[in-house]
Structures are given as structure tokens and as C-alpha cells.
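[Solved] Which block belongs to which protein?

Original post:
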Amino acid sequence: MTRHCSRRLVLSTLVSLNGVIDEPMAWAGPYFGPGSAAASLAVLRGSSAMLMGRGTYDVFSRQWPDTPGEYAAHLNAMPKYVFSSTLRDPHWTNTTVLGTDVADTVAALKREPGGDLIVYGHSRFGRALTAAGLVDELAVTVVPVIVPGGGSRSWPGDAPSAWELLSAGPGGDPGLVSLRYRPRRG
């Protein structure tokens, strides 16, 4: 299905050396310093809204409202859209709950004018976006750590998909690798 969109959807994820993508707050933090903070802020400044599932909302809404700094201030001020069938009264500023019709609702958001739509996290919500062909860019940061126990290795999307490399290079801080992909069409 072809979708005519005026803004991009960027799915950003962290992955360990052994392929773990879940619970990055438990293992990625020590590798993020001033360079990563600056790079993350630049991505956020280019985004006009954040999309997330309920799990990401629960984590972020506990962490960011009371965190000082420019990144937190920008994140707290921007519109945030949560896809959930159970969240009724979000307490995080500028948060709207949109229900569970991911494909049609996100396609409509992409047709609106504005900057990128950013997605952090990658579970069911990321898979739904990928399966619907709504992800315009996959931004992967490889973190130089082996996570004990393995954790989840479920990349967004259950169906086979091919991606084209846009860029590869050092991440914002020593040891990190930044990879950017777009879906390979056709």
C-alpha cells in the first residue's frame, strides 16, 4: 500500500553486542555521555511529536517529567501520542491517548505538516509500525556491552523486510556505533 506522507517516522532503538534490545535503561546508561546527549537532543529538535506504546509511556512518564535539562524540557513540551487500550487519563504533559488503530492513525499523523515523528522502544508497537510499512528510518545505536541472560532479541517487525544502509559511523560517545537505515522498496 502506498502512503503519501509529509513527515517521516523514525524508529530509534538501542542494541547490545549480543543483540539484546529490551530494557536498555538497565545496560546502556554508562555508555551515554555528552556526545550522545547532544546527538539525542538534535534528533528530538527535528521531531514534532513522539509516538509510543503503553510500556514506553509507563517508563518515560516516570522518568522525564521531573528531570532537569534541555532534552527533558523539550521532550516534556512536545506532543506525545500513546497507543493503548487501557490508558485513560495520562498524567504526562501534552500526552494524548489514541487507542489501538496504529496503522490508520499513524498514517494520518504522517500526512499532517510538521517535523519527524520519533518512536523510542520497539516491542509490539514498533512491530505494528514496521508491519504496516510506516517506518521511514530505523536508527540503531550499538552499545558495546554483552547483556547477561540474553533478554529479548525481537527486532521490530515479524515479517521479513529489507533495509538499505543510509549511514554508519561512530556514535555520540566512545564505543557506540550509529547505524541508520531506510526500508528497501521494491
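(Second protein starts here: sequence line, then its C-alpha cells.)
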Amino acid sequence: MVRESELREGEVAVDMPAPRDAGLVFIGRIRTPWTSRLETPRQGRQDGPVCRLEIFEPWVAAIKGVDFYENLEVIYWLHQSRRDLVLQSPKNNQKTRGTFSLRSPVRPNPIATSIVKFVAIEGNVILVRGLDCLDDTPLLDIKPDRCEFTPLAPPQPGDFQTE
């Protein structure tokens, strides 16, 4: 198991550039049972423990309608993650891969997403299942799962398409 800030064989760290303010606003905090990266699951499970998305003022009114959706996309800031690795060795298998080819929490901008199962709303708190982050993780945003949306109109000539 990896210890905090340990480099595995073949991993490469770089000097981080000076930070610039991206204007991010934390809309709340995530409450989970996990206080150490070593005990946090590698991926959330929708049958996992109920976790709390505590929403700060003035964003509490934005909760309205969240209960319409079965699944939500939670976007959060991995505040305790390293940010300097460009090559990583997943599972300590001595086969390095580039950071952008992994779902590792170690990233230049440690933004994470999870698709979670909506459980309930209690005041300024959204209860969900399926998170995989530390307790007290800063919350960036909440969106309905994109799979639950139907496009409003068919693509039109000239629209950007990825295919």
C-alpha cells in the first residue's frame, strides 16, 4: 500500500507552476466516513454508505428540484492530493502510465467527479450513496446525471459534433 507522498518505482514528479486563481467557489463540504486516503474506497458504490453533501449559503436555494433525479454528478476538489506527478505506477505494478490516462486522485488540478444515487434532502443537506472521497472534501458543484437528460432538439447543420 502507498504511504502519503511516497513515490513508487518509475513515478515522476515535477515542480508545480505558480498557482493562478481560477475563481472556484466551494458550495459546500462533503461528509463521508473516511478520514484517510488509505481507508477510502478506490471507487464509490451506489450501495455504499450514505454520505452528506452539506450546502453553504447562499447556495441552499439551488437544491430545489434535485430530488427529481435518481442519480447526480458530484464534482469536488481533492484537497489532500498531490498535484505534481506526471507518471504514475498504478497498484505499484512498476508499469508507469501518464496521469491523464488514469483515474488517480493525483492530478495537476485535483477535480473529481462521482455519479451518486440520490437518497434524500434534509434542510441544506443532500444525502447520497456512491462517493469515494475523504471527509470534509470541498464541494464544487452538483448536476443531474447527464444520462437522465434527453436532448432538447436534434442536432442542426453546423452544430459541433464529436463523430
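Accepted answer:
You had them paired correctly. Confirming on the second one: The two ends are 41 Å apart (CA to CA).
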